[in-house]
Design goal:
heterodimer; A: 307 residues; alpha/beta; Pyruvate Kinase, Chain: A, domain 1; five-stranded mixed beta sheet; B: 137 residues; alpha+beta; ATP Synthase, domain 1; 2 domains; five-stranded antiparallel beta sheet; 2 helices; 10 strands; globular
């Protein structure tokens, strides 16, 4: 049986752990609120920009064929995979589920006799891919706590360059979509070519809650719009903006998810620590009681021998 | 004369800035100043930094300083996506002048073809557009 002192030490160390996990939970909760605000504020803008780009691409007709970011290449030889993870762990399955999905997609791609080209944001994803012996074409770290638009722009421009240079024929992005503080959904989207890009339900439906948005997509309004400047030029600006905003949005979703996941993980950890402390307190009481019983026995035995 | 009204929606990465019925939207595209009235033909254009005016009526005008963006008009609904939107009353001349000096320094020292120089040139254009809004006032 463990001595009282031993048990007391263990209780003290669990209490320290609990203090730390509680503090981390509070920090994550505060950051979550900010991250959540940013992502909900961005969603209507991002959806509208994506919708606008797709409409422009569709209406551009013959011009679209000359815009490389729009053309689907056949056959696809290599697939770029961008994994959006966090710089830090201690967030439950947050990072590992992204890496697992990424590796799975990589195997799928290889099964199709295509070669995967890896990109990753966040130290966790970068180190885990490197550990698995994957060569990274792009590694971006140090901002997952609070991504700036410039970070998204940097990543987007690398992806677009790789696509235009023919290093990749398609780009997939995998990130944790933010649903609620308790739920993150592993989301996979096709980013490039834009013609094949994943259409999110909320993009097509109206992200703004306006009656117009959904109706605006109906085919009877395929009037050729006026373009300023011409469609070719405007597509050349819109398309990179589309990629940027999509990456930015994925980064923000991931950040909100990360804080949510960490908050949940830390709350569980605090609860577990509390449970352990309770059990240990029980054990300590038992140990103390055992010691007392032992002493009484010794006293009684001692007294008995004197009689 | 009262004009027909239509919906103007202004979105920024920081959220929705405006979504109301207006008589006219006045802004600037790459080709120049444009006034959008109700029943405007479908349009897709790039926006340049300028003063964005949303006319609730002839005398009631909502004004913003607008960064780069895009405007789309479909079905009597104007959708403006702008990267940055500042209430004109919140423009700060000294801050803008400081930004202009900084951007000019970057643009002078950086390689003319580099990304940072291009960014600085855009920044100068933006700041100058905002300063001219202040001048007009």
């Amino acid at each position: 049986m463990a001595s009282q002192r031993e048990v007391r030490n263990r209780i003290a160390s669990f209490k320290n752990i609990q203090k730390i996990t509680r503090a981390m939970e509070a920090v994550s909760a505060a950051r979550l609120r900010r991250a959540e605000q940013r992502v909900t504020a961005l969603r209507p803008y991002a959806s509208a920009l994506r919708r606008m780009t797709r409409q422009a691409a569709r209406d551009a007709g013959a011009v679209a064929a000359r815009v490389p970011l729009l053309t689907v290449r056949e056959p696809e030889e290599s697939v770029g995979i961008l994994l959006v993870t966090a710089d830090r762990g201690l967030a439950g399955a947050f990072n590992s589920q992204i890496i697992r999905a990424g590796v799975q997609l990589g195997a799928e791609v290889e099964g199709n006799r295509q070669s995967p080209v890896w990109f990753a944001t966040g130290r966790r994803g970068v180190s885990s891919l490197t550990f698995r012996g994957r060569q990274l074409a792009g590694a971006y770290t140090g901002f997952t706590d609070r991504p700036a638009y410039a970070d998204a722009r940097r990543i987007a421009s690398d992806l677009v360059t790789a696509y235009l240079d023919g290093a990749v024929d398609r780009v997939e992005i995998i990130y944790n979509g933010y649903v609620s503080p308790l739920t993150q959904r592993v989301t996979r989207e096709t980013l490039l070519p834009v013609a094949a890009a994943t259409i999110r339900a909320e993009d097509e439906g109206d992200g703004s809650g306006e009656s117009g948005a959904a109706a605006r997509d109906t085919p009877r309004r395929r009037v050729f719009p006026e373009y300023e400047p011409d469609p070719d030029k405007i597509l050349r600006v819109l398309l990179p903006a589309y990629v940027e905003i999509s990456v930015y949005r994925a980064l923000l979703e991931s950040t909100a998810s990360e804080h949510g996941a960490r908050m949940t993980a830390m709350r569980n950890a605090s609860e577990n620590a509390g449970e352990l402390i309770e059990n240990l307190a029980l054990e300590m009481n038992r140990a103390r009681q055992a010691e007392i019983t032992q002493e009484i026995l010794e006293v009684v035995a001692g007294a008995g021998s004197l009689v | 004369m009262a004009h027909a009204r239509f919906i103007a929606e202004v979105l920024t990465p920081e959220g929705e800035a405006f979504n109301e019925e207006v008589e006219m939207v006045s802004t600037r595209t790459t080709l120049g100043l444009i006034g959008i009235l109700a029943n405007h033909a479908p349009l897709l254009a790039r926006l340049e930094p300028t003063e964005l005016r949303l006319y609730r009526s002839e005398n009631e005008i909502v004004r913003f300083a607008q960064g780069e963006g895009y405007v789309q008009v479909v079905d009597n609904h104007a959708l403006l996506l702008v990267e940055e939107l500042i209430d004109t009353s919140e423009l700060d001349r000294s801050e803008l002048e400081r930004l202009r000096e900084e951007a000019e320094r970057v643009s002078a020292s950086a390689d003319a073809d580099s990304e940072s120089a291009a960014y600085a040139r855009r920044e100068i254009r933006r700041v100058e557009a905002f300063l001219s809004i202040l001048d007009e006032k």
